[in-house]
Amino acid sequence: MKSFFLCLLVCQFLVVTAAQTLEEIIRRNDAFTILASAIDLVGWIPFDGEVTMFLPNDDALSLLDSKYLTPAYAPHLKTILAYHIVPDMILSFDALTDGYVLDMYAGTGSVLATVNETGTFFSGASFSDARVVNLERIASNGIGHEVDKFFWPSQLTWTLLDLAGIVQGFDQVLQLVAASGLEEELKEENRTILAPSDLAFASLPAQFVSQVTSDPEVRDDLLRYHILIGSLPLEAITDGMQVMTALGVPVVFTISGEGNSRQIFVSNPSYGDAISVETGNLVAKNGITHALSGVLETGPRPSVENPVAGPVNSPANDPSESSTGSSSPIDHRTVASLFSWLLFYFSFRY
Length: 350
Ligand SMILES: *[C@@H]1O[C@H](CO)[C@@H](O)[C@H](O)[C@H]1NC(C)=O
Ligand SMILES: *[C@@H]1O[C@H](CO)[C@@H](O)[C@H](O)[C@H]1NC(C)=O
Hints:
Residues 19-151, 157-296 form the FAS1 domain. By secondary structure, this protein is an alpha+beta fold. The protein has two domains: 20-154, FAS1 domain (Roll), CATH 2.30.180.10; 159-326, FAS1 domain. 30% of the residues lie in helices and 24% in strands. It has helices spanning 2-19, 22-27, 33-42, 58-61, 74-82, 160-166, 171-180, 198-202, 206-214, 216-224, 333-349, and strands at 51-56, 85-86, 101-103, 110-116, 119-124, 127-131, 137-139, 142-147, 191-196, 227-229, 242-244, 250-256, 263-268, 271-284, 287-292. Strand 4 and strand 5 form a beta hairpin. The radius of gyration is 23 Å and the shape is elongated. Bound molecules: 2-acetamido-2-deoxy-beta-D-glucopyranose (2 copies). One 2-acetamido-2-deoxy-beta-D-glucopyranose binds at residues 114, 116-118, 121, 129.
């Protein structure tokens, strides 16, 4: 009789547990309230099939910089969540043996398991020793392992300047930035870079390019016109939205189409063509880069000597977030897959 009741309890528990999705397990457990609110912010990670997910508990996520739990950092948060998921694989606690290498959600990097007498631990390029603190939770669509530290993806140790160097096709912009001394600006907190690709520069009249490269004032104005103060993810952009640049002259965003054909354009509200955002939401620790198919111009082209004379905002330096150069070495191999992942990811979101 006793065992019957025990079975009634345990078996029912097993059935109920297995019937829940991973998301339900997270939402119904008091240990994961921060993880649940992160999912509220960015939506459930889109994946097909079964997954293994590492579930950082509230003690772990209370150490996450709270800016990442705001809509302005939604792409960062998506990257963080994706780095906790092994797609298409159910790895029970027993399967996580010493030396096991886990390939996390496309392009976010890999994670190494260490098992010894004190427990089962996980480390990646930019975090170490996250320990499994609870037995696995079996869900209808996968398995979850509670951990006492969050997994930190390498992308979020890069500054915007690092990112521009890692992603191919931005040599022109990088050269201009290096010549202008604006590098510190790209290491500062909370910036959004509208980055014209090399192809964008190649399509400009040679005369204009030579003016930009030879005239420091034109060059610096042009660069500042591609920097927004604050983190502006694609999700936050609305049709007709004007945003102030570091130059002190606004840009205007327009949106056409919906769903998968949604396209975002940016232009100078009083001059020039609308330029499309090609690959958006590339995350770095201090902001976001949106790659542009063209160059935003601050005013009429060459010969007419008429640079925009608006006050130049030189945002105050934030000493607390100066780049120390201590970030871990960059894994160039992840970048190609980072892009495929981003494209894959956002094809679900738009
Ligand atoms: C960056 O943005 C976040 C969120 O908007 C804010 O909490 C933080 O204070 C900002 N940092 C700086 C240096 O402006
Ligand atoms: C077990 O591994 C963890 C993670 O690498 C490490 O921090 C810990 O010191 C190890 N413990 C022993 C007893 O080796």
